[in-house]
Amino acid sequence: KQEVTQIPAALSVPEGENLVLNCSFTDSAIYNLQWFRQDPGKGLTSLLLIQSSQREQTSGRLNASLDKSSGRSTLYIAASQPGDSATYLCAVSRGGASSGNTPLVFGKGTRLSVIA
Amino acid sequence: GAGVSQSPSNKVTEKGKDVELRCDPISGHTALYWYRQSLGQGLEFLIYFQGNSAPDKSGLPSDRFSAERTGGSVSTLTIQRTQQEDSAVYLCASSLNRVNGYTFGSGTRLTVV
To answer: Does B42 contact A106 at a Cβ distance shorter than 8 Å?
Structure first.
């Protein structure tokens, strides 16, 4: 059974600092990995999607890496801002050759606070 | 529609009552998922629909929970005889295929009193 773990559970940093959020998964047979952001009382917003054949994806100040063989992904946030404060969730999609849909397995998230 | 729409956004119900939660996926998305997020917990998969195939109900916690998807579009999650432990945020997502990832709605916050 796939299990996804996110460390740390909570993180507080001063504005401007670069930071790394960690995600690990027990079964390396994944199709892809997706990072989401969740603001309090809101739904999930997709940040980055990494296919299993890729090593990293970048969007603005965000960079996500994937090491499938070791079951790890990191989300790097550069020059953090108070508006980055949210819970960040990592999720993996089960492996297989088909691009057909399967449910995601989520970690419990990292709650980030960026202090002005 | 432009995104995944869920209604109602908030629902307060009395213990023992039935509730229906609605999800309207992105037009053309063949897959639709329901997840539950309880306080302090991660997202828990409940059920998913893929086209005309039989739904994968493996995540439903009890037979009080059921869902249907009419015409391959709108889905309704029904919880019968609600219990306090059913209080959670219920999130719906849709996708075209795994390559393009998943899009989530804003959720329905259910409170059972």
So the answer is: yes
Query: Scanning the structure block, which residue is given the tokens 């009395």?
Result: B14
Q: What is the token pair recorded at A77?
A: 């946030």
Residue A98 has pLDDT above 70, yes or no: no
DSSP secondary structure, A56-70, as one string? EEEETTEEEEEETTT
Pairing of strands A62-67, A30-38: unpaired
**Nearest CA among A78, A6, A88 for reference residue A44:** A88
What mean pLDDT do residues B54-69 have?
94
- Region B36-40: mean pLDDT is 88
What's phi and psi for A8, nearest 5 deg? -80, 170
| Residue in the structure block whose two tokens are 């990072």 | A35
Nearest by CB: A101 against B41, B98, B107: B98
Q: Which amino acid is at B37?
A: Q
